[in-house]
Amino acid sequence: MLSYCRIPFAFAVLATLVACAQYGVTVSRIDYAYQYEPLEITAAGGGDRQLKVVVLGNPFDAPQAELETSVINSMQGRTFGIPVNFAAEPTNTDPNRDYRVVVAFNPEGIRDPGKLCSVGTDLNSTTSNGGVLTLMGAFCSTDSYLSHAIARASDVEGVNSEKLDGLVAQLTLSLFPDENPNRQVDGDTGSLPRN
Description:
This protein has 195 residues and is α/β, with parallel strands linked by helices. The chain has one domain (7-175). Helices cover 26% and strands 23% of the residues. A 6-stranded mixed β-sheet has the order 1-6-5-4-2-3. The radius of gyration is 16 Å and the shape is globular. The relative contact order is 0.25.
């Protein structure tokens, strides 16, 4: 029997599902690179360091800077106890690696959120399909992902809505678990990563 999840991770998943139901958010296609480690997250944006956030697309009638601020505010404190300081323009990043989080609203032509790490800032977004807003996110190290996920919600009213806050929060929780499900535990060989 393979055992990848410890109690804290299982509890975190349960808490995420409860919160998702509360906000009408669906989180799917979550994947973690085999090398994902929570300590790496702390190195990327913990303590006095900041982790860059790139927000692509804008489905709302609001300035991009306002959407960016709303997204980053919704991400703060949503990393299962791993302290991360998210920022649009970090003043203190890891000088050795290019860590960042890329989130994209209704990205056109992208089905795999892991691809967000290698796209530029000129990514186009599409209109919502049937009122459903799709938010893709990836925690990137240079041009490859350490984790990625897709979250969806319908009837998101605007940049300051509770539903957008819930959508971004659930995506962030999915990107930054306290345990990598691909990690080998107690001698188990585990499964190969799905990269």
